[in-house]
Amino acid sequence: MLKIENLQARIDDKSILKGLNLEVKAGEVHAIMGPNGAGKSTLANIIAGKEDYEVTNGTIELNGEDINELSPEERAHNGVFLSFQYPIEIPGVSVTNFIKTAINETRKARGLEDMPAKDMLKMIREKSELLEIDRKFLSRSLNEGFSGGEKKRNEIFQMAMLEPKLAILDETDSGLDIDALRIVANGVNKLKSKDNAVIVITHYQRLLEYIIPDFVHVLYDGKIVKTGDASLALELEEKGYDWIKKELV
Amino acid sequence: MELKEKILSSYVAFENGININSDIHEIRTEALENFEKLGFPTKKLEAWKYTSLNTILKNDYSLFLNKDASVDLADVKKYFIHDIDSYKIVFIDGKYSSFLSATTHDAIDVCLMSVAFTKPKYKVVIENYFNKVAKQDNLTSLNTAFATEGAYIHIPRNVELEKPIQIINFTTGSEAATMVQPRNLIVVEENAHVQIIERHQSLTSNAVLSNVVTEVFADRYATVDYYKIQNDEENACLVDNTFIDQKSNSVVSMHTFSFGGNITRNNLNFYQNGEHIDSILKGITIIEGKQHVDHHTLVHHIEPNCESHQDYKGIFDERSTGVFNGKIIVNKEAQKTNAYQQNNNVLISDKATINAKPQLEIFANDVKCSHGCTIGQLDSDALFYMQQRGIPMKEGKALLMYAFANTVLESVKIPEVKSRITKLIANKLGVNIGFDL
Fold it and tell me: Are residues B59 and B208 in the same domain?
């Protein structure tokens, strides 16, 4: 599904990714962990197509197609979803209207008609139940005055509605209390299938107790320096990153 | 001949068509003398530093249109808020169109200045209110000198008018250049309530100069909600001079939506003659090309315990230019005043300009006055968020602009007006988002 080879990228003159390799296959869950400033969020943003970063070398392929020249919306239309660490607020546009717009613009790009209102409503009902979202919440302005947890839950709600092939969750667990974490993780697990893939970016092991990764990668200084199974996350939780840094030296 | 000379020399002919023995005529003559002395505003005047009328004053305007122009309802229907039951006062080239209007004299008066000027039953109101709050500056004087027609609205005590009133001035462009000078008088008595929607609309690309004066009197406990929709053709210029006199406990709100036209100048003046008054001034400006919109607001806090709230949002693309000059005067006696002013601007292009100037003159010592002014670009992180959800750049920008202007939109009290404005914004931004943006 996703194949990244020797990815090097910078912002302004600061080199952030320094030859990163990652392959994610359909049906897999990958966790990316690492200390602050290692480049985790940068990687997420670059896959999603944020233009502030300059890719200086390497390739990003989605289902065999190089996506480096695609705009963020084109990548979204191809099935990339990024759950933001800091979702933005849009006063005056309700959650429902925003997601309808997102879905119908995506359908338009794929040459499909707008989703019939009846189907849309049904889907909204199903997915909001899945994430235990109150109906009243859906008519509020997008993210405006939402608590940290509400914002994250709303991100996963949008993910559920958009049904992406590749979902990247950028620190979705930060700001969540244990109940919200369970609900979000449960939602992600229910949406998982053999045809899609998830990349979970996190500092902490606790989200990975709910979303069990097939692979855990350690991102350090712009590269993936270690890959293991779910037990690696536990080890990192226990021992921190210093031992990995030492291994590298 | 220069326009000023042309106007002055046409006055004799103008007098032939009206009753020069009325008291009003003295006011007119005085106003003409005042205009003769002051002339058209130039950039040398501080208040006109950023708005030049030079180019548009070069047009050879027809001042009095004698032809009775007619328009088809089908052609102009779109300029009305038509999905709402309302009174309508419609003028075509400065002349009343009974065909397009729906007026009344039933308990309330929603009719014409030409009627109010001539019929004895209106004499007292005209004497008490006409030209009483209008400032005697250059363009207001010019309007007063030729004041004959416009909307006359009189809402008696305790009448809560359910139907809004639409005032629409069409110009047909039957002449290469047309100047019109509507004069409106709105008197809202104690505890009465009225909603008004005003629009000036050119129907061709010929040059139009509208120099409008509106006087609004809101008596004690009166409520006035006023909406101005400015979305005219590219050769239409509008100078809107509005003067609002408020008595104790009255609430007057003015929303100005400026989306089109060549030069639009809004002189909006609030005078708070009483206590516990609330004045609300809001505006959304979205322009491009070489369009120019200038908001000059004045709120004069004269007595204690009053409030004013200003919120103006501007979005400027291409080479468009904007001006916001917000003046607040707080008299020495006006203690416990709460005056708030907010002006936020987004420049979409490098070539667009905004001149923003808050002007606070505070002579009282126990007041709360705050003002904030920002000039910025659209938030690129927010745009990325939209794009990431599959919303293309253009639609994403439109959503962001809509969100930016939303604090003004959400206080619009007539739902049909709100949805019309959101549609105008969507059209303006060239998007079809699939819901009532």
Answer: yes
List chain A residues with CB under 8 Å of B433. 101
Per-residue pLDDT at B428: 84
Half-sphere exposure of A18 (CA within 13 A, CB side): 11
Contact: B384, A51; criterion CB under 8 Å: yes
Of A80, A105, A162, the CB nearest to B392: A105
- Structure token pair of residue A125: 């009902």
Query: Count of domains in chain B?
Result: 2
Q: Which amino acid is at B399?
A: L
* Whether pLDDT at B437 is above 70: no
* B255 plus B394 within the same structural domain: no
Structure tokens at B420: 């019309």
Is there a contact between B389 and A158 (Cβ–Cβ < 8 Å)?
A: yes
Each domain of chain A, given as residue ranges in start order, spans 2-248
String of DSSP letters for B360-401: EEE--SS-EEEEEEEEE---HHHHHHHHHTT--HHHHHHHHH
Q: Is the ipTM, as predicted for this complex, more than 0.90?
A: yes
Q: Is A70 exposed, middle or buried (CB count within 10 Å of its CB: 0-12, 13-18, 19+)?
A: middle
Residue A249 has pLDDT above 80, yes or no: no
Interface of B with A in 353-382 (CB under 8 A): 379-382
Interface membership of A93 toward B (CB under 8 Å) = yes
Domain end (from B273, B305, B332): B273
Say if CB B271 and CB B302 are below 8 A apart.
yes
Lowest-confidence region among B18-27, B134-143, B269-278, B332-341: B18-27
Q: What is the mean pLDDT of residues A120-125?
A: 95
**Cα distances (angstroms) measured from residue B164 to each of A25, A81, B83, B175, B227:** 62, 47, 12, 32, 10
Is some CB atom of chain B closer than 8 A to the CB atom of A76?
yes
A176 confidence band (pLDDT: 50, 70, 90): confident
CATH of domain A2-248: 3.40.50.300
Q: Do A73 and B390 count as a contact with CB atoms less than 8 A apart?
A: yes
Domain assignment of residue B25, given as a range: 3-273
Q: Name the token pair of B234.
A: 């590219």
Average pLDDT over residues B112-126: 94
Q: In sequence order, which residues have a C-beta less than 8 Å from that of residue B296 and are 6 or more positions away?
A: B47, B265, B266, B267, B268, B323, B325, B327
pLDDT digits (tens, 9 = 90+) for A225-246: 999 999 999 999 888 888 888 8
A97 touches chain B (CB under 8 A): yes
**Tens digits of residue pLDDT in B133-145:** 999 999 999 999 9
pLDDT band at B23 (very low <50, low <70, confident <90, very high): confident
